[in-house]
Design a protein that fits this description.
The complex is a heterotrimer of chains A (about 250), B (about 350) and C (about 300). Chain A has two domains: about 160 residues, Rossmann fold, CATH 3.40.50; about 90 residues, 3-Layer(aba) Sandwich (Rossmann fold). In chain A, about 35% of the residues lie in helices and about 25% in strands. Chain A contains nine helices and ten strands. A six-stranded mixed sheet of chain A has the order 6-7-8-3-9-10, with helices on both faces. In chain A, strands 2-1-4-5 form a four-stranded antiparallel sheet, covered by helices on one side. The two termini of chain A are about 30 Å apart. Chain B is globular, with a radius of gyration of 21 Å. In chain B, helix 14 runs parallel beside helix 17 and helix 15 packs across helix 17. Chain B has one domain. Chain C is mostly helical and about 300 residues long. Chain C contains twelve helices and four strands, in the order H-H-E-H-E-H-H-E-E-H-H-H-H-H-H-H. In chain C, the strands form two sheets. Chain C has a two-stranded antiparallel ribbon. Chain C has a two-stranded antiparallel ribbon with strand order 3-4. In chain C, helix 4 packs across helix 9 and helix 7 packs across helix 9. The longest helix of chain C is centred in the N-terminal third of the chain and has 33 residues. The relative contact order of chain C is 0.19. The chains are: A alpha/beta (about 250), B mainly alpha (about 350), C mainly alpha (about 300). At the B-C interface, helix 7, helix 14 and helix 16 of B face helix 5, helix 10 and helix 12 of C.
């Protein structure tokens, strides 16, 4: 078991945003988390990645309890996250973006010397170049990130999330706001990442087409609680899901 | 801003030929910055002391170097890391007192005085940094202001016996440099024209060192991570980097610069005023850095020259220069966030675009 | 003096000192909690309260260099303390609305540091304007005649009427604002804004009317604090920052976004200050910072502060 949550619960005052959610993610298996707005999808991911501390419950990564650790500690263990809005360094060049990401991957342990030239860290620079080439951003390395087209920004965002060679990657609505073409490219990219890097992917998504293309399993959240969990076929036929989440709309 | 973003890796721009590119390649070299700083300390007094209304004393030039060290360090925090401290008077004033007390009771060797001042500032920065970084973002300015004021009141009240309280500390005794070189000893001939006296070499030398250290820090992995934190703190955290420790590191490094400056100021003024710990000193360094232009090495130096020139030379002519300064400050924050130096670099790149026809 | 008497005496002194800090802190706390806006210029509202209040209550002497060069003399309405206390909050409420509209709003989308810098700059300008027109020397803001003397509280001892007046005025103001925020739509916006940063971050929500009103109300209280504090603290241009820093500490200790937090924080800060003035005067100015440091280490969100989502 790569990742497991046990009775994960988050309350904000009287509101229970996440209610005893149990998730199991096998290595190499792609899971999609779906649910209507306000179902607690993003909060669940924030609890797992350490941005929020759960009120109750546990997060186990490779059997080890990582509940309440800081995001950077969790990332260092091989868990990474791509944000819904392209979370990049807008005023830095694409190359600088990649270099900072490689610094995180190679030197997360704060062992850097502040009087040593960055140009002397060959490992960091090589990894940055590799990351840019992998994501097809090398040609644009001298461009400021904010000047990239939207689709490229999202690719840079994903490049940052992948720089540390994570085993588990959370993708929060990776195609939000994209054109159909860009969406296609992104889905291809996700499939490529799965195959080439063997990354286990947890996808948070609205778009059913993408979900069925990418995921091996689907977990459905509604009002903070998990109401179904299974293969896409099982979920498609589940009357509870149709009732609660889709309101009777055909999938 | 462009200098440091291009600086990370030697560009592969050899194919794009031309004088400007060679100039850029030269500029990216660290030795170029250091040579520039050395040339600056030789040439600057000749220009500055001939400015209108200037009375010709070298003392103000030395004071500019001291404040510029303070400002360069402050900009590593504000301009590069995006953290606004309103308590930097603690490191300036605290180290100045430590320097004064050390000179009176232990040794008057200038280099040791500066060392003690720097170490004092580092210790203070660790304590205040850990406290002020307990709360995120916007609280940093409030908490540094508060703990800065605390040190002011401590120096006035409980420690009044050793700091001299409101009268300031008067017992500073500075010995000759390395036991032999009296700070007031002038040089003869060409050396005298260029470097004046031992004291000038001391202050200008530390200024060159500060520029070199700052350039190196900006080009280290720390510099890259500081800038990334300023742009998008959360992303840095999700790259697996411990943001809190890098912020503390930036605060301590910045404090160390202020400490060196504070120690030098004690040597220069032979006196420590309690006002050096007051919030107005913290406000001055904020104003100097922001007016000059944040996010570069030259911006804070420009700001220091402008501020000290006006404060010491022109303030007599303009009756309400603090009022003018406040209005100028708000204007810069509002309309020209890149400061005076930003305006200069803006003009420079416009001229270049004109020259090249097309800026790639 | 009896034990009860000295306890009551300590409490009354604490309440009097706390009152001014609480009045200034409430506005800071609400704008911090809802708008995530650090407002150094809040101290300018206190200064407006002191100086304009002095002109309304008694007489303001314009002896700054600019005033002298244009022949501006003394201006005084001589309407008395209570008139100033009634008029000033209205004036500073209006100034607060202007500040929200023309200073705060253009900066909601700019980096936090820019917000802080511009409010700091505006505080500097106000402070220097006062120096240029009124002058830098300390003025006298006399207490009203009716508050001179002392009132006997029977077996509890006899206390300065002035202190009791400050406590009474503050209690009324704070209670009124508390009820207003607790039982109206504005209060809903405050609570929602403090708890849900996401909502506040969405552009436009901040510019809605409740937040405008909040800014005004906070400024009104700070103005009132200036009138009440005029006779207590010195009347100099720097007193703005002198009051602002303890008010920030009140917010740090009490926690943001709630009036109860500001009251609790203010009382603690006041108690520490009064306690030290009585027992260890050299440390009196230092203790409140030590208190803030301890609270930060033990409970970073403040005593009454909700644990916030770190963005």
């Amino acid at each position: 078991m790569l990742l497991e949550t046990k009775g994960l619960t988050k309350r904000f005052g009287e509101l229970t945003a996440v209610d005893e959610v149990n998730l199991q993610i096998q290595e190499g298996d792609s899971l999609s988390v779906i649910g209507p707005n306000g179902a607690g999808k993003s909060t669940t991911v924030n609890l797992i990645t350490g941005l929020l501390n759960p009120t109750e419950g546990k997060v186990l990564y490779r059997g080890e309890d990582i509940t309440g650790q800081e995001p950077h500690e969790i990332v260092q263990q091989g868990l990474s996250k791509s944000f819904q809005t392209a979370s990049i360094f807008p005023d830095l060049t694409v190359e600088r973006n990649a270099v900072v990401a490689s610094l995180g991957a190679e030197h997360g342990s704060f062992s850097l010397n502040f009087l040593r030239r960055l140009g002397n860290y060959d490992d960091v620079l090589e990894r940055a170049e590799q990351t840019m080439r992998d994501m097809g951003l090398y040609e644009q390395r001298h461009v400021e990130a904010k000047s990239l087209p939207y689709g490229d920004k999202r690719r840079l965002e994903m490049a940052l999330a992948l720089a540390s060679d994570p085993d588990l990657l959370f993708l929060d609505e990776p195609t939000a706001g994209m054109s159909p073409d860009e969406t296609d490219d992104t889905v291809d990219l996700i499939e490529r990442i799965k195959e080439e890097r063997g990354v286990t992917i947890v996808l948070i998504e609205h778009d059913m087409e993408i979900i069925f293309r990418v995921s091996d399993r689907i977990a459905v959240l509604n009002r903070g609680a998990k109401i179904a969990d299974g293969t896409p076929d099982e979920i498609q036929g589940d009357p509870d899901v149709q009732e609660a989440y889709l309101g009777g709309v055909e999938i | 801003m462009s200098e440091q973003t291009e600086a990370a890796t030697p560009g592969e721009s050899a194919d794009a030929s031309g004088l400007l590119d060679r100039w850029d390649g030269l500029r990216e070299r660290e030795s170029f910055s250091i040579a520039g700083a050395i040339a600056f300390v030789v040439v600057f007094p000749m220009i500055f002391t001939n400015l209108p209304a200037y009375n010709g004393y070298m003392s103000l030039v030395e004071l500019i170097y001291i404040w510029a060290i303070f400002a360069i360090g402050f900009d590593l925090l504000l301009g590069y890391t995006g953290l606004l401290s309103f308590g930097h008077a603690v490191f300036w004033g605290g180290s100045a007192y430590a320097a004064g007390l050390f000179s009176a009771n232990v040794s008057g060797e200038p280099l040791l005085i500066v060392l003690v001042a720097m170490v004092t500032a580092i210790v203070l920065a660790l304590i205040i940094g850990i406290l002020s970084l307990r709360r995120g973002g916007i609280y940093f300015a409030i908490l540094t202001l508060a703990f800065g004021q605390m040190m002011y009141f401590i120096a006035l009240g409980p420690l009044g016996g050793i700091t001299g309280g409101e009268d300031g500390f008067t017992g500073v005794t500075v010995d000759p440099l390395l036991g032999a070189l009296e700070l007031g000893t002038g040089f003869a001939g060409v050396l005298g024209t260029l470097l004046h006296d031992i004291g000038y070499v001391l202050f200008a030398g530390f200024f060159v060192l500060a520029v070199a250290a700052a350039v190196r820090i900006v080009r280290s992995p720390y510099g890259a991570i500081f800038q990334a934190i300023a742009e998008n703190e959360q992303r840095v955290r999700f790259l697996g980097l411990n943001v809190w420790r890098y912020k503390l590191a930036a605060f301590v490094i910045s404090g160390a610069f202020a400490g060196v400056a504070g120690g030098l100021h004690t040597i220069h003024a032979q006196y420590v005023a309690v006002g050096s710990l007051f919030w107005i000193t913290s406000g001055d360094i904020v104003i100097i850095t922001v007016l000059g232009g944040i996010g570069s090495i030259f911006g804070p130096v420009t700001g220091t020259i402008a501020f000290l020139y006006v404060e010491n030379i022109v303030s007599g002519e303009i009756a309400f220069w603090l009022l003018v300064l406040g209005a100028l400050f708000v204007t810069v924050v509002w309309l020209f966030p890149a400061g005076i130096w930003g305006i200069v670099t803006g003009i420079r790149s416009t001229v270049r675009e004109q020259l090249l026809g097309d800026d790639s | 003096m009896s034990v009860v008497g000295s306890v009551v005496g300590f409490m009354i002194q604490t309440l009097a000192v706390s009152s001014i800090y609480i009045l200034v802190a409430i506005g800071l706390s609400i704008t911090l909690g809802t708008l995530k806006f650090v407002n150094f210029a809040h101290a300018a509202m206190y200064l407006a309260g002191v100086y304009i209040g002095l002109g309304i209550a008694l007489e303001l002497q314009f002896s700054g260099d600019i005033a002298r060069s244009i022949g501006l003399g003394n201006v005084g309405l001589d309407l008395g303390f209570l008139a100033a206390l009634a008029i000033i909050p209205i004036i500073t409420f209006g100034l607060g609305l202007l500040m929200e509209r023309f200073v705060a709003r253009p900066f909601y989308d700019r980096p936090d540091t820019d917000q802080i810098l511009v409010t700091f700059g505006i505080l500097l300008i106000v402070q220097e304007l006062i120096r240029a027109f009124v002058g830098g020397r300390s003025l006298t803001f006399s207490r009203p005649a009716w508050a001179e003397g002392a009132i006997s509280l029977g077996p509890l001892g006899t206390y300065a009427s002035w202190r009791l007046a400050i406590i009474g005025i503050t209690s009324v103001l704070v209670l009124a604002v508390y009820l207003y925020i607790e039982y109206t739509d504005v209060g809903l916006a405050v609570r929602a804004g403090t708890e849900d940063t996401e909502m506040v971050n969405l552009l436009g929500v901040r510019a809605t009317r409740p937040f405008l009103v909040i800014f005004g109300v906070g400024s009104g209280l700070a103005g009132a604090a200036g009138v009440v504090g005029g006779p207590v603290f010195s009347v100099v241009p720097e007193v703005g920052v002198g009051v602002l820093v303890p008010a920030f500490l009140v917010v740090v200790v009490g926690g943001v976004g709630s009036i109860v937090g500001s009251v609790v924080g203010g009382l603690l800060i006041g108690a520490v200050e009064v306690g030290l003035v009585m027992n260890a005067p050299t440390w009196s100015s230092v203790g409140i910072y030590a208190l803030a440091a301890v609270v930060l280490l033990v409970r970073p969100a403040g005593l009454m502060g909700a644990v916030e989502v770190d963005e």
